[in-house]
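Customer escalation, tier 2.

The customer says the design service returned an amino acid string that "doesn't look like it belongs to this structure." They asked us to rerun it and document both sides in this ticket. The original structure tokens are below, unchanged.
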């Protein structure tokens, strides 16, 4: 089967399975410093396999060309940042999207992190038919997991990845039959917005455990402001010793940061936008 894949490293195992057992015509991806999972692995694999890589947004004309002239059989979107234009005049168009929420609950960006802010008990992943309105297509498969206290946002993504691989295998075993069995989402729930910056940002009034709890929710989205510059936090460890200075850089991207009851050892990425 000829597949155009949209996504990053979140579901790398699914990409590798498809590359081994089918023909991936093109990889569409993107880069965002605040995402814990980047595109490093999937781009590396694509280049090794000779699969073309595009960081650009796909246009409706390109979609039509892929299905009418290039022999594409399926669009597979999995944690992709851009809207894919769905042509309503192509009879053989087939496309699915993987969304990290139990749709219709959790439409929109960053559903896992937003769900943690809301205090949701259950998380999961939905594969749905690509539709003109984002996250609104009929449901193909869905997996649900109860979050335990020791699970952070990355754990939930990793749990989802196991089931997305099986969803992909089941889909590709009978694409048309599986898509015919898709069912409407039902209730129309509001789209979730990205959590406010204030909820994502470390400060000196936090205890070490409060900082770690914040990072467990947001991981690479976590921010900190030091000397007027804003950084993403790529990793965090806590220390018990109280420090005098608010923040001391011990390397270009490493900082000892004062907390209310100790210190935080931060690995940082300077925020450029």
């Amino acid at each position: 089967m000829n597949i155009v894949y949209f996504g990053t490293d979140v579901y790398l195992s699914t990409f590798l399975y498809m590359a081994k057992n089918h023909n991936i015509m093109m990889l569409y991806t993107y880069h965002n410093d605040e995402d814990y999972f980047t595109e490093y692995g999937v781009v590396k694999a694509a280049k090794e396999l000779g699969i073309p890589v595009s960081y650009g947004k796909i246009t409706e004309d390109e979609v039509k060309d892929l299905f009418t002239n290039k022999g594409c059989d399926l669009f597979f979107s999995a944690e992709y940042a851009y809207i894919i234009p769905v042509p309503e005049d192509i009879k053989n168009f087939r496309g699915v999207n993987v969304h990290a929420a139990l749709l219709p609950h959790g439409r929109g960006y960053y559903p896992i992190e937003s769900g943690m802010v809301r205090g949701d008990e259950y998380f999961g992943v939905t594969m749905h038919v690509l539709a003109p309105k984002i996250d609104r297509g009929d449901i193909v498969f869905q997996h649900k997991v109860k979050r335990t206290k020791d699970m952070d946002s990355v754990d939930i993504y990793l749990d989802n990845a196991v089931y997305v691989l099986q969803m992909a295998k089941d889909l590709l075993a009978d694409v048309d039959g599986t898509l015919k069995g898709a069912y409407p989402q039902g209730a129309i729930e509001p789209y979730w917005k990205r959590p406010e910056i204030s909820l994502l940002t470390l400060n000196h009034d936090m205890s070490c455990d409060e900082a770690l709890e914040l990072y467990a929710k947001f991981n690479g989205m976590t921010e900190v402001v030091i000397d007027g510059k804003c950084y993403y936090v790529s990793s965090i460890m806590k220390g018990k010793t109280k420090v005098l200075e608010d923040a001391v850089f011990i390397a270009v991207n490493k900082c000892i940061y004062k907390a209310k009851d100790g210190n935080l050892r931060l690995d940082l990425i300077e925020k450029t936008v």
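Tier 2 assessment: The sequence is consistent with the input. DSSP finds eight helices and twelve strands in the chain. The first strand starts at residue 2 and ends at 7. Sent an explanation to the customer and offered a walkthrough call.
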